[in-house]
């Protein structure tokens, strides 16, 4: 059994989230890796090796150069949460701010998107 994805209470109504698109600014010196992790600003990992549902047939991550490509060719669904990396760790892992993490983790569908590897990175 892998790591569990933390749950949080949402502020307001729970969002329906079909996937997560992480926007990465080129100034962050982010490098695509096979198995990236996504962290909260407090250092807690919310996505990465060990958090995925066993037996998934999709790749652990997809990378795109534009938001439009990610929306049209990715697996983030019709209502993805679009979040912005605030910094990188180990060059291939991204950190998102607490409010974005709360929105994802406060939603049952957001936690499911993490478990099912419906996470895309856009490196602009």
Protein architecture, described:
The protein has one domain. Strands 3-2-6-5-1-7-4 form a seven-stranded mixed sheet. The model has no long low-confidence stretch (mean pLDDT 87). The chain has helices at 67-73, 98-105, 108-115, and strands at residues 20-24, 38-40, 45-47, 62-64, 81-89, 93-96, 119-123. It is an alpha/beta fold. 19% of the residues lie in helices and 26% in strands.
Residue share in β-strands: 25-35%
- Distinct helical segment count: 3
- Give the total of beta strands: 7
Trace the largest sheet across and list its strands: 3-2-6-5-1-7-4
What is the average per-residue confidence, as pLDDT, rounded to a whole number? 87
Specify the structural class.
alpha/beta
Total tally of structural domains: 1
The helix content, as a percent range, equals 10-25%
Compute the CA-based radius of gyration: 13 Å
Q: Which sheet architecture does the biggest sheet show?
A: 7 strands, mixed
Question: How far do the termini sit from each other?
Answer: 35 Å
The coarse overall form would be globular
Element pattern in H and E: EEEEHEEHHE
Q: Which residue ranges are poorly predicted, with pLDDT under 50 across at least 5 consecutive positions?
A: none
Jot down its keywords.
124 residues; alpha/beta; 3 helices; 7 strands; globular
Task: Offer a concise description of the structure.
This protein is α/β, with parallel strands linked by helices. It has three helices and seven strands. It has a seven-stranded mixed beta sheet with strand order 3-2-6-5-1-7-4.
């Amino acid at each position: 059994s892998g790591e569990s994805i933390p749950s949080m209470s949402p502020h307001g109504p729970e969002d329906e989230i079909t996937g997560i698109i992480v926007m990465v600014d080129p100034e962050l010196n982010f490098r695509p890796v096979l198995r990236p992790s996504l962290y909260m600003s407090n250092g807690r990992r919310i996505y990465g090796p060990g958090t995925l549902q066993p037996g998934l047939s999709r790749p652990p991550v997809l990378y795109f150069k534009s938001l439009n490509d990610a929306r049209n060719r990715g697996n983030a669904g019709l209502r993805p949460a679009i979040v912005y990396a605030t910094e990188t760790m180990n060059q291939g892992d991204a950190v998102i701010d607490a409010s974005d993490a709360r929105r994802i983790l406060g939603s049952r569908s957001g936690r499911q998107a993490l478990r099912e590897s419906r996470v895309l990175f856009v490196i602009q």
